[in-house]
Amino acid sequence: MIARMSDMDGTSDTTTVRDEREPGPEADGESRPTLRERRIAAWRGAPRVLARLGFVAPLRERLALLEAAGSVYDLDEMADIYGTGVVEALEKRVAGLLGTEAAAFFPTGTMAQQVALRCWAGRTGSPAVALHPFSHPEMHERNAFSQVSGLRSVHVSSAPRQPTAAEVRDFEEPFGALMLELPLRDAGFALPTWEELTEVVDAAREREAVVHFDGARLWECTEHFGRPLEEIAGLADSVYVSFYKSLGGFGGAALAGPATLVEEAKAWRHRYGGNLFQQFPTALSALIGLDRELPRLPEYVRHARVVAAALREGLEAGGLPWFRVHPEVPHTHDFQVWLPYDADVVVETVIRAAEETGTVLFANHWDSKGPGLSFTEVYVRAAGMELTADDVRAAAEEFARRLVRD
Fold first, then answer.
1. What whole-number distance in Å separates Cα of residue 360 and Cα of residue 143?
2. pTM for this predicted structure
3. Is 65 in contact with 244 (CB distance < 8 Å)?
4. Which spans in 150-258 are helix H?
5. Residue 27 has pLDDT above 80, yes or no
6. How far is 101 from 97, CA to CA, in rounded Å?
7. Distances from the Cα of 357 to the Cα of 56, 315, 349, 400, angstroms
8. CA distance 206 to 401
């Protein structure tokens, strides 16, 4: 059976994969739980995990997030109507954090970025957007740039890393905008150095191109760059940020930049159907995330580096013939793990280890990348802070021994 799946961080993946449903009917005629259902159940029930991601939690737990709403906004105020009230408060908060003139709330990042780059195309006179082929619009948005917004993607690099200044400067085709995904998720949540980033931006400016940051996870980049958010965002002409990927909100995004661009973007938001009647639950959850999670993100990044090192040591001690933790030193609090086994074999071992030991290191799904090769993404959040390097090392060694044995 074939189905389309979404990854654990909620980003729709357009790759068609097997449904993970186990064969054979149950005695009552119902099908058995899928591997995904078993994996999430094991993750929910495990007392020791690296991350507890809200969007796969029960509805009761998700609604409980709003119990803190009174601490971030006056609940005696009227609810929002088409972007007023709490939505305006969120927009002002984001603009202040990023150091931009203004910001506009959007229901999705896909919409926010199309609108931003469509606006820039009108100003530059060029519909060409230079970006990496691993970037989100190319990997996960069903060609929305071309199919919906009349934009044309050009790829300045095909290497599994951020583009370089030389690649941008010497690219053979003209383009009106350069889009940089920070971090580049499908390359392992990869970031350039600060010097490399400024050089890439300068190279785009030399070509009289505008620079847009796909900053869905920009919130978590400050530790790697050693710079505050407003300095990072200040390199770009416009920035998109997400409220659920790093901050644990219900959804939503914001586009930040010059006031004139944001006003134009709001007009296009309406045309795209993104000016929703009321969005106060999502806006409140975003404000809660900015208060609760944003200050802790550097701590998560530092601990992810501890976790990654301990994983390497444990997997090696467990006898795996080959593996890779990428990047070796994570740039954010998310990173990849690659193993020389088929994905369904790894998932079965993950589930059994979780059910029998109560520890989950790999909560996300595993993707097949060829015969006998698979990878997953590892997320470190507040729950993971309770696991020491010794805890992770021991759990990784136990997992590796099971995998080799099975």
1. 35
2. 0.92
3. no
4. 165-169, 194-206, 222-225, 229-233
5. no
6. 11
7. 21, 16, 12, 13
8. 54
